[in-house]
Amino acid sequence: MDDAMTKRSNALPEEAVRWNLSVSSDTDSALRKWLAGKGAKRGDLSRFVEDAVNRQVLREMINDIHARNAHLRAADVEQVIENEMRDVRANFWPDQRS
After folding, report:
1. How far apart are CA 10 and CA 45, in angstroms?
2. pLDDT band for position 98 (50/70/90)?
3. In the 8-state DSSP scheme, what is residue 13?
4. Quick check: 74 and 66 in contact, CB under 8 A?
5. Half-sphere exposure (Cβ direction) of 85: Cα atoms closer than 13 Å
6. Containing H/E element for 44?
7. Residue 49 buriedness (CB in 10 A; 0-12 / 13-18 / 19+)
8. What is the pTM assigned to this prediction?
9. Domain limits, the chain
């Protein structure tokens, strides 16, 4: 299994819900063979699906943010980020010299 999946516990979280998914038999077979080749254990198929969904949601959120901010100049975006980071640093890591 890859690092992201092996770092997780084998048990699904208590609040896990069941999904019924339909995929082609080719996709099912390919994924199960790939997981078996990686030494998959019980629950790894569910973790694989959850990880894939989380990655896709993150990609879509990033695409939405890019589209929403497409009208801004890169320099303006960098300035906003720098200002916010300065505020976070000031509040999270107060000056150690005092």
Report:
1. 11
2. very low
3. P
4. no
5. 6
6. helix 44-68
7. middle
8. 0.63
9. 26-98
